[in-house]
Amino acid sequence: MAELIDESSSIESTTVGVYRTSSTVKGGRRFSFSALVVVGDRNGKVGLGYGKANQVPQGIEKAQKEAKRKMRAFPLQGKTIPHEVSAKFGASKVRLVPASPGTGVIAGAPVRAVLEMLGVQDCLTKCYGSSNPKNVVKAVFDALDQLRVRGKVETLRGLSLEETTVEEAVRRGMAFMPQKGGEKAQAPVNTVGEEQRGGRGGRGGPRRGGPRRGRGDEAGAAGGAGGGEAAPA
After folding, report:
1. How far is CA 10 from CA 43, 120, 170, in A?
2. Beta strands 45-53 and 72-73, pairing class
3. Three-state SS at 36
4. Which of 95, 43, 42, 37 is nearest to 70 (CA)?
5. What's the topology of domain 3-21+31-73?
6. Does the fold of domain 85-172 match that of domain 3-21+31-73?
7. CATH 3.30.230.10 is held by the domain 85-172
8. Residue 34 CB partners (closer than 8 Å, separation 6+)
9. Confidence class of residue 232 from pLDDT cuts 50, 70 and 90?
């Protein structure tokens, strides 16, 4: 759960994990705690911190201060990443794939914490190898270091580039997203098989065999047919 730690700059923090270690001394066991925290402003800046203390709250506070000092800015393409990236740290490998608006963040807890604090709302991810949260989070930061936007690449190369597939997907996807806060996104309409459903007695279509009669209607019809004949003299 995100926690607001600085109201002036809207900086929030998410605790990825809390770990306990113990050392055996003459009087018994002595416990210490460490915390892994991700801090960001949900607007392109995020940082990672790791703190140790004899108590959990103090360890989280130390990690938050370190993460706040190490906050860095990363390029984004709207609410997703500019292009696909992969990175490896230790035995963990992470792959980040951009997604169109409305997809959401498809990721596990460690990767989701970093992307949400960064401000990414649409992204596909996949982790390979070890699932150690410490290595996974560091692999995500290594992947974010590889991100480049089209404007920066044009400046470095000294030429103009065409619109990327990610920019096109974001532009097309924004047409279906709500422009105001109270509106809802447009839902796709399924029109497959409308004719078949209408012909087989679906909603709004004619029923097979004509209107259904009840037993009372059949009895009344039979009585009316018999009453119409002339009685013998």
Report:
1. 10, 16, 26
2. antiparallel
3. strand
4. 37
5. Double Stranded RNA Binding Domain (3.30.160)
6. no
7. yes
8. 18, 19, 20, 21, 50, 51, 52, 53, 59
9. low
Crossing angle for the helix pair 133-144 and 109-118, nearest 10 degrees? 40
Please say whether the beta carbons of 78 and 52 come within 8 A: no
pLDDT tens digits, 61-100: 999 999 999 999 999 988 899 999 999 999 999 999 999 8
Tell me the two tokens of residue 52: 């140790």
C-alpha to C-alpha distance for 75 and 155, rounded to whole angstroms? 15
What's the pLDDT tens digit per position in 104-139? Answer: 999 999 999 999 999 999 999 999 999 999 999 999
Contact 110, 46 (CB under 8 A): no
- Rounded to the nearest 5°, which phi and psi values hold at 16? -75, -40
Domain ranges of the chain: 3-21+31-73, 85-172
